[in-house]
Amino acid sequence: MQPVTRQTYQLFWHHARRYRALVTVMVIALVMAVVLETIIPLSYKRFFDILSTGDHQGATAGVLVGILFNILWLNIITWGLWRVAVFGNNFLQPRVMADLANSCFAYLHGHSYGFFISRFVGSLVRKVNRLVDSFENVSDRVYWELGPLAVRIIAILLVLGARSPALAGILLGWTVLYLGINYVFTLYKLRFEEQRAAADTAVTARLADSITNNANIKLFTAHGHEQTEFGKLTERQRAITRFTWDLDGLMWALQSLLMLALEFSMFYIAVRWWRRGQLTIGDFVLIQTYLLQLLHRLWDFGRIIRDLYKGLANAQEMVEVLNMPHDVQNKPVATPLRVSRGALDFRQVRFDYSSTRQIIKGFDLSIAPGEKVGLVGPSGAGKTTLVALLFRFYDVTDGRILIDGQNIADVTQESLRSQISFVPQDPILFHRTLLENIRYGNRDATIEQVKAAASAAHCDEFISQLPAGYDTYVGERGVKLSGGERQRVAIARAILKNAPILVLDEATSSLDSHAEQLIQQALAKLMEGKTTIVIAHRLSTINKMNRIVVVRDGAIHEVGTHAELVKTSGGLYRQLWELQAGGFIV
pLDDT for 304-315, tens place per residue? Predict the structure, then answer.
């Protein structure tokens, strides 16, 4: 068994065993039902033996009627056992599937920021759905088909062996051969099923990526290019799908020949022993009944195994994600962050994206409680990476980041992020109402508090014009709002959160001059008493900061106030200021 397949079974059992008592009852009911179905043909054997040798008198008829009632009661008991199995499964499967979905949700969101920026959203969603569906597929194959088949084969061999060991031996040998051929074939075909699942994932990911970027496709007139690339993926999917279907067709042809050979051989030998008086008419009925039961279910064995491994292959990608350790984890002894003043210290911080790409190099900066610090520098200097390290989206390669003397690597991630408000350059909103998006800053806030924060961020200016007001859905990622409107919602969210540390990343970049002036007033009020880091390319937005830190190539290049830095001859800040002619690019 491959490691991932074993891990998939372990994952499914880990979730199913929470309902161990129910699983036990279901298994007992299933086994008893199959055993009774195997015993019932013995009553038919006796019925036909008496029918073929007895007379038409009342005594014989009474025995036959008694056998019929016995068959009836056995069938009623079997019916009841199957109902226990069915309704037990109806309760168990949806519960376990919901548990699996919740586990995937929790573990996925435990992965670091870097995990998500290198993966397609649509692909991850598909993997979760496949894993949940795979449990239904695998459990159905095991519980309803493979389990009953195994019990039925054992029971039939035992009953048939008591009547004719030779026939039972023939049936056993044929069954081992048949199952062995199917199993070997399934293992051979498994790798092609995995390729087919991977091809399907690639098609889905490309489709999702193209739909997300439909505007870019139109702007760059790339429809033909995208269609060609998508066509290559679907052609690969078509080719591997046809190949796997052709393999199925070949296997079905071989199965038919094997079954014809078994049925002919069993009855040919049975006829010879009947002529010797070793078998009765009832034995023929028994053999035929068992062959019908067995061949019908063995015919499906190939499909069952293929469906089973197809389900396992579909689950494989998500199981690998679930077995992938989180890059950023809380320490076993992590404690909640306690912020009393809001002092920030970056002490010789170094961060490497890889062994060959160093982003932050020995960054050393102390920010006093309540101090307002601006971060400026060329694109790619490492400003946004510093913020990501502060939020612990990544762990530093070397050095420490302290908040009120507490190493952020020693505190819980949730408590760390709860103490920092963030307004990004390009806010991404949930496809929910404006009320829900703003309230995300403080999910316990009242409607009055939400509206007060929205008013302070000047959101009410556009919300009041919407027919549904605060109940307006903003669309996926907030696409129904303009960039400036999304930024105002993000600012309102930060106002509502009211954390002691505030980070602004080009928070007014999408606003017009009039709106920016209003928002700057709101931000000035928001920054009161808070330790604040402001990332800005437009230098006019930070010239009133207590200090400005100029970052270049992942290290501090200059530090000072606006007035000090513009006087530094040959300084980078002065060059940037002059290029922008007072804050605006000329």
Answer: 877 887 788 788
Phi, psi torsion values for 470, nearest 5 degrees: -70, -10
For domain 335-419+533-586, which architecture applies?
Answer: 3-Layer(aba) Sandwich (3.40)
**CA–CA separation, 286 and 279 (whole Å):** 11
Closest CA to 81 of 47, 45, 42, 40: 40
DSSP 89-108: HHHHHHHHHHHHHHHHHHHH
Q: Which of 264, 262, 261, 259 minimizes the C-alpha distance to 300?
A: 259
Three-state DSSP at 575 gives helix
Q: Is the CB of residue 210 less than 8 Å from the CB of residue 223?
A: no
Determine the number of helices (DSSP H) and then strands (DSSP E) in the chain.
Answer: 20, 10
For 74-90, the pLDDT digits (tens) are 999 999 999 999 999 99
Q: Measured in Å, how far apart are the chain's first and last C-alpha atoms?
A: 67
| Phi–psi pair at 345, nearest 5 degrees | -135, 120
Residue 381 near residue 553, CB atoms below 8 Å: yes
Indicate the SS3 state at residue 345. strand
CATH topology of domain 3-322: ABC transporter transmembrane region fold (1.20.1560)
Q: 60 pLDDT exceeds 80?
A: no
Distant-in-sequence, close-in-space partners of 8: CB < 8 Å, separation ≥ 6: 134, 138, 312, 315, 316, 319
Q: Are 415 and 499 in contact (CB under 8 A)?
A: no
Helices (H), 147-164: 147-163
